[in-house]
Amino acid sequence: MKKYRKDTLDYYDKNSKGYYEEWNNRFINNYNFDVPDIFLKYVKPHSSILDLGCGSGRDSLYFKEKGYKVTSVDGSKEMCKIASQVLGEKVEQLEFLDMTYRDEFDAIFACASLLHLNDEDLISCLKKIVVALKDEGFLYISFKYGEGTRNKEGRFFNDMTEEKFQSIYSNIPELEHVLTFSNPIYDGHKPFINFILRKRQ
Question: Do β-strands 133-144 and 192-199 pair in parallel, antiparallel, or remain unpaired?
Fold first, then answer.
C-alpha cells in the first residue's frame, strides 16, 4: 500500500471515535439524507448496493431500512468496528484497490471516500468498480470541490472539479455521465461536488 493511503487510514483508525461523535453531534443536525435520496432515484427497490467506504455506517443503515441489500466495507479497521455496531452485523475491512467483486452490485455508493485517492489510484479503482457493477449499474461518488491535492492532519485529499473528473473517468469507456450536483457546506467545511455515473451495457 502506498504511504499516502496508509497515512490516511491511520488517521481514521486513530480518530474513529471522534469522527463518529463529530458527525452525530455537529453535522447530523444539518444532514437530512438529500444525497442518498438523489442516488436512490436511480436504484430500483430491493437492489444490491455496495457502500464503498461506509465510515460509521450512517448511509448503509439508511439503505437497509429502506429495504436494499447492502454490503458495507471500509479501509479503516476502527471505522469498521463502529459501523458493525451501528448496523448490527460485521463490516468487512477492505482497502479500495483490493476489491475483487465481479458483476455483483446494482449500485455503488462512495460518499466522501474515494476523494482520498490520487488520480492514478482513482482510475484503477474506477476500473475495479466497473467490474463490480452489473450492466447499467450506477455509481455515486463525491469529492471536496476545488483544484489540486492536499494533506490535512495526515489525510490525503484529491479535490475535484467537473472538468477534472471528466478527464479522469474518460479513461474508463464503460462509464457514462448521468448527473453532477453540489450539496451544502456543513459547518464551514468545503462544499462537495457529486457525480452519478452508469455502467454501459
Answer: antiparallel
Whole-angstrom distance, CA of residue 166 vs CA of residue 154: 27
How far CA 155 is from CA of 10, 15, 158, 179, in Å, comes to 9, 11, 10, 28
Q: How many Å apart are CA 70 and CA 73, to the nearest integer?
A: 10
Q: What are 4-16's pLDDT values in tens digits?
A: 999 999 999 999 9
| Nearest by Cα to 76 from 111, 105, 108, 52 | 52
Q: Tell me the sheet residues that pair with 50.
A: 71, 108
Q: pLDDT, tens digit, for every residue of 26-53?
A: 555 556 788 999 999 999 999 999 999 9
CA triple 89-128-168, angle to 5 deg: 125
Q: How far apart are CA 63 and CA 47, in angstroms?
A: 10
The whole-angstrom distance between residue 195's C-alpha and the CA centroid of its chain comes to 11
Task: State how far the Cα of 123 lies from the Cα of 140, in Å rounded to an integer.
Answer: 15
Rounded to two decimals, the pTM is 0.94
Q: Is 153 helix (H, G, I), strand (E, B) or coil?
A: coil
Q: How far apart are alpha carbons 30 and 71 in whole angstroms?
A: 26
Query: Position of cell 452519478?
Result: 196
